[in-house]
């Protein structure tokens, strides 16, 4: 039976060695990259932390003096002084520990701050196609929760593991010096610690991964319910949605129980194994005292030192679940950090406001489906162009190409003759106002939504007269100023998440005002008259096309009442863009 159990244990260890490593080396390197600047200080910190832990040695000497001299000789005064000295040593140890903990916290927080900044920069560099294909709710959850898990695990590493390892080694050497044979007896238990750790860690790791997945699914579910409440209620689907989300909560409950049960089992096994070493010391140390080969003071010092070593070992092994947690989180963050594709253009040449944009023989496909075929188009200063075509023809694709969201498979796009790959795409976008087919809004005031991204955006920006004037002028051009001023709080009206406190037509005009506030040289409108009545459409298009200071306008629409205001009209069908010679006149 013993041989069978041994073979099973060895088999599990070999199987685990053939599988995945407990810790991902790539994740470790990723985390370490944020601590390289602090590495010398971390080494110094670890040495100081270990030295602080070794202040127990004077305490051991005082305890030996108490048991071998003060107590046998009933020397009360000596015993009091010993107590005072131990108290002073304890206070010094606590003071050093506080200083070290503060340093540790600051070091970790700086590293996590840099990690979060890099992840935010990564999010801003990713292409629009990435976000179209991604589960953004899950992505949001992973970045928020996994950076916090990385924070916790790095704290465990710096505060517990790094200072504990040199202190444990020093105590092991001290124990050998105090009593080498008793130390070797206790050390005989060490292989059991390693074996049990090796066997229990994969179980804990599996439960940990399942718990992480369950938390992410739960978070995404909460996000879905909050953002899609109107849809849920329109479909009268509250009870079914509750059933669906209850199943998610049950999965999270089950995964949480498994994870923390695994932690508890691992902790108890480790505690019992190290406790076995303590029993060995107690038994054989007691025998040594009985046969006079060891004094009571010597044994007490040895036993306390062994207990201190055990506490350091427990701190190291107790931090392992946190390290596993952090390693799994870092692996996820590393995948996000290396995700792609990024923005399609990364040139550096600035583009002058009012540049002429040209598409020449542009082709674009999604998989095997050909969206654009040899499309050519020119938008110069003061142009007034409209593109018509059926839904799904690729009209929005042309706009995305011009603004640099997508890159053609063939052909060329230029700004004043400079190919898009060479230009600073952000300088181009700063001179273009664009209203997407489905514009987005954030929780804030009308003014904040209109002026987002402009100089002075933020608290108190309405007091900046130039920006306030530009905002009002843009709202007037968008036929939005009157209805905004009629609201109780005017431009300071809070629109709600995704603009839920305003109508669709009001939001559409706010989106157009936002596109105009920067006084762009080119205004791109993708189906701009959704949610607008015919009278409002007429007023809006007259304002945009007949104003003497108007920008060049490119409109995509299937609405004849919009297209008739254009000087040049194109039709997109079967991937080909054809100019209509005689557009309908207003």
Please list the strands of the largest sheet in the order they lie side by side: 6-7-8-3-9-10
CATH class of the largest domain reads: Mainly Alpha
CATH architecture type of the largest domain? Up-down Bundle
User: Uncertain regions: pLDDT < 50 for 5+ in a row?
Assistant: 1-20, 456-463
Look up the CATH topology of the largest domain.
Answer: ABC transporter transmembrane region fold
Task: Find the structural class using helix and strand composition.
Answer: alpha/beta
Q: Overall mean pLDDT score?
A: 81
SS strand fraction: 5-15%
CATH H-tier superfamily of the largest domain: ABC transporter type 1, transmembrane domain
Structure explained in plain terms:
There is one protein chain. The chain is of the alpha/beta class. Helices cover about 65% and strands about 10% of the residues. It has 21 helices and ten strands. The strands form two sheets. Strands 6-7-8-3-9-10 form a six-stranded mixed beta sheet, with helices on both faces. Strands 2-1-4-5 form a four-stranded antiparallel beta sheet, with helices on one face. Mean pLDDT is about 80; it is low at about 1-20 and about 455-465.
What's this model, at a glance?
The chain is an alpha/beta fold and 586 residues long.
Which tags fit this structure?
586 residues; ABC transporter transmembrane region fold; Rossmann fold; 2 domains; six-stranded mixed β-sheet; 21 helices; disordered N terminus
């Amino acid at each position: 039976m013993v041989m069978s159990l041994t073979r099973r244990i060895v088999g599990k260890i070999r199987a685990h060695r053939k599988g995945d490593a407990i810790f991902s080396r790539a994740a470790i390197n990723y985390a370490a990259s944020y601590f390289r600047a602090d590495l010398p200080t971390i080494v110094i910190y670890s040495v100081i932390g270990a030295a602080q832990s070794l202040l127990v040695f004077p305490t051991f000497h005082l305890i030996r003096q108490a048991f071998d001299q003060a107590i046998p000789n009933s020397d009360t005064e000596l015993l009091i002084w010993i107590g005072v000295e131990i108290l002073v040593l304890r206070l010094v140890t606590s003071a050093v520990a506080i200083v070290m903990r503060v340093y540790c916290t600051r070091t970790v927080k700086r590293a996590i701050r840099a990690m979060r900044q890099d992840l935010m920069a990564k999010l801003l560099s990713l292409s629009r196609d990435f976000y179209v294909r991604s589960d953004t709710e899950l992505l949001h959850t992973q970045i928020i929760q996994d950076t916090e898990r990385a924070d916790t695990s790095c704290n465990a590493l710096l505060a517990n593991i790094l200072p504990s390892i040199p202190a444990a080694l020093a105590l092991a050497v001290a124990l050998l010096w105090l009593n080498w044979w008793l130390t070797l007896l206790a050390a005989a238990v060490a292989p059991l610690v390693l074996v049990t750790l090796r066997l229990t860690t994969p179980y804990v790791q599996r439960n940990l991964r399942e718990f992480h997945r369950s938390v992410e699914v739960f978070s995404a579910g909460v996000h879905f319910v909050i953002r899609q409440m109107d849809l849920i209620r329109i479909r009268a689907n509250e009870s079914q949605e509750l059933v669906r989300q209850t199943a998610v909560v049950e999965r999270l409950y089950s995964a949480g129980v498994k994870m923390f049960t695994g932690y508890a089992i691992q902790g108890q096994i480790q505690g019992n194994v190290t406790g076995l070493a303590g029993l060995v010391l107690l038994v054989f140390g007691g025998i040594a005292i009985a046969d006079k080969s060891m004094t009571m003071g010597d044994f007490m010092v040895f036993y306390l030192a062994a207990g201190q070593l055990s506490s350091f070992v427990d701190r190291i092994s107790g931090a392992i679940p946190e390290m596993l947690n952090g390693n799994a989180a870092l692996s996820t963050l590393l995948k996000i950090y290396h995700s792609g594709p990024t923005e399609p253009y990364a040139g550096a040449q600035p583009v002058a406001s009012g540049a002429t944009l040209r598409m020449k023989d542009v082709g674009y496909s999604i998989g095997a489906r050909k969206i654009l075929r040899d499309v050519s188009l020119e938008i110069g200063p003061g142009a007034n162009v409209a593109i018509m075509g059926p839904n799904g023809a690729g009209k929005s694709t042309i706009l995305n190409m011009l603004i640099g969201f997508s890159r053609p498979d063939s052909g060329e796009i230029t700004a004043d003759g400079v190919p898009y790959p060479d230009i600073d795409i952000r300088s181009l976008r700063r001179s273009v106002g664009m209203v997407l087919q489905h514009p987005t809004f954030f929780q804030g005031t009308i003014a904040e939504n209109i002026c987002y991204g402009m100089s002075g955006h933020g608290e108190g920006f309405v007091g900046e007269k130039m920006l306030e004037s530009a905002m009002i002028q843009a709202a007037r051009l968008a036929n939005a100023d009157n209805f905004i001023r009629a609201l109780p709080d005017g431009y300071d009206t809070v629109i709600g998440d995704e603009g839920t406190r305003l109508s669709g037509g009001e939001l559409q005009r706010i989106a157009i005002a936002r596109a105009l506030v920067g006084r762009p040289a080119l205004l791109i409108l993708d189906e701009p008259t959704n949610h607008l009545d015919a009278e409002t459409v007429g007023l809006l298009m007259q304002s945009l096309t007949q104003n003497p200071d108007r920008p060049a306008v490119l409109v995509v629409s299937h609405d004849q009442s919009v297209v008739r205001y254009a000087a040049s009209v194109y039709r997109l069908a079967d991937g080909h863009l054809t100019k209509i010679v005689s557009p309908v006149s207003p």
